[in-house]
Amino acid sequence: MALDDTMIETLTSKIDHKLDELSTDTTYISCIYRVPEKPRKEKEAAYTPRLVSIGPLHRERGQLQGMELCKLRCLRNFSNRFKVHLRDLVRFVARDERYIREYYGDTINLEGEQLTEVFLLDGIFVIEVFLKNHFFKLRERGDIVFENRWMMSDLLHDMLLLENQLPLQIITDLFSFVDPSLLNGITLHALAHEFFKDVGNTGKLPLTQRCCLARHFVELLRYLHSPTHPKEQPSSPATKFENTRSATELQQAGVKFRRAEESCLFNVVFNRGELTLPSLIVNDLTETFFRNLIAFEHCGYNSKDITSYVIFMDNLINTPNDVDLLVKHGIIKNELGESKIVAELFNNLYKEVVTETDDFYFAKLCEDLNAYSRDPFHEFKSKWFRWRMMLRCDYFSNPWSFISLLAASVLLILTVIQTVCSILQVK
């Protein structure tokens, strides 16, 4: 049915109203997203909060409601400690509710009053957690978060989730109410850096000016772990990406491994047969950390640096033996226990097939490693290494295997001698 003039005017008015509601400030383009269905199905637990909802996306989850009382206590303590009236806090958050809503990629089906309450309670909760993490004197007796190890572990997990983020802008604004005499110059970003010290290489990496541009904690961690040097271009940039060999295969071809002094994950250097890599602590937060940074890169970023690192490590690690080799050289510190668990972690972090080198940070490095491994001398060395290992496993694994091989060799030699002597006698 064709629209008449009245219907056209009505529709025009509706669309015009929606256009008026759009923010003209591009600073606040959405950056907090729901994780796409495909990675979520692969590992639901890596994207779902266990203990607490931060922000509006998971506030209705029943199992997280127990922490709402804790948030209220945090708000009361904050207000009393810093002599701040609740009305002032509410008014302060309410003024920015509209543009902060636009940080979220999904439509938030909450009224302004409800969303203001979420931002206030969650923002104060995060600040209180950071303050108590640094200032032990602020912790009350019976604090359920800091006196329960599992709760702190779950809280760290939850604050790494892309869907469980609060805009840093609102947390920074509320942080201005903290008494400066208590902080003594300590910034919110410094407190966050300390809180996340056991995540990835955070504790070994310095805060930079770029970190202050982060719009939420996932982006803060991404900035912190980003490359410090531009990507090297492969000699044939148009070619398709080709996986490099695993750590043990590279070792068989003559590659030596060494731990780098630097902590940036991207300071990987291959020079004259030596591959130098920074160390990485692999613990129970590693999978959540990498999965959510990868999801963030694929939802809203052009560069895929963290994804590149995960793919590169997946290439190096195929079996537990590869993990053992990297652990031996101090490149991986395994806090998960069995090497098999670490191998499975890296083999399952990213399932997409990489075909182009454009987005892959380590394309040039892999090209150099492949060229080195395929050199005739190193190819022979690799084959000789595998043959020697096969002999060791099949024939020299225990004394009886060696004796059997020796006896068989002696018997073969005697048989040959007897045959030669028989031929000579006939003649």
TrEMBL record:
Sorted UniProt keywords: Membrane, Transmembrane, Transmembrane helix
InterPro entries, alphabetized: DUF247_pln
TM spans (from-to): 400-424
Source superkingdom: Eukaryota
Pfam families linked: DUF247
Name of the protein described by the UniProt record: Uncharacterized protein
Source organism per UniProt: Handroanthus impetiginosus
